[in-house]
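Subject: for your reference before the review

Hello V.,

The reviewers asked for a structural picture of the protein, and I figured it would be easier to keep everything in one thread rather than splitting it across files. Below is the amino acid sequence we used in the manuscript, unchanged from the supplementary table.
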Amino acid sequence: MARSFTWLRYFLLCCVILLVFTFLLALITFAEISTGIWALIKHQKIEELPLMDAKKAFSLATTDNKKIWDRMQSRLGCCGLHGKTDYADSQGPPWSCFKVASTEDSQDPDTIYKVGCLFSAISHTRSVLLNVFLTALGSVLLQICFLIAAACYLKAVRKKKEKRKQEILETARSAKDSDADNQTLKSKTLRSF
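And here is what came back from the structure prediction:
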């Protein structure tokens, strides 16, 4: 009898752990679905800055935020806000507008980036948001597979519990029947003496 209680405690512990796992996995899946939907909506709604804000931001490219603009232009492979013509008022495009970093004396016009940074930044942002969406989608599909596997495992454990319960009942019945048979046999044996 003590053995069946040990098995029952083990079974209940497994069920509790499995239920906690399933709940946490469902919570994480919900968070990832929300993140994926948010990224997809933002990907579709991303728009350009209003022209005045974009021009204001670019005006800082030649003064206060020159290092930031140089880093952005060299990393995104772009020049100016809409192209190299944005630098027409200044002393020409900076080194970061060229495909190969070179000295000011040898800046070849053929190696200058033709695309403006506004387009490149929007394209890069859309790409990142699309990657976030696809990662969330892939993760959700994987977690759904884990949830299905956990549900199948829980079902198998319940079936095994029922089968074990039936075995215990059959063993108890057969033991009771064999005890009754033994009692009958003993009483017959005693009467014969």
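For the response letter, the relevant points are probably these. The chain has a mean pLDDT of 78. The domain at 2-180 is CATH 1.10.1450.10 (Cd81 Antigen, Extracellular Domain; Chain: A).

Happy to draft the paragraph if you're swamped.

O.
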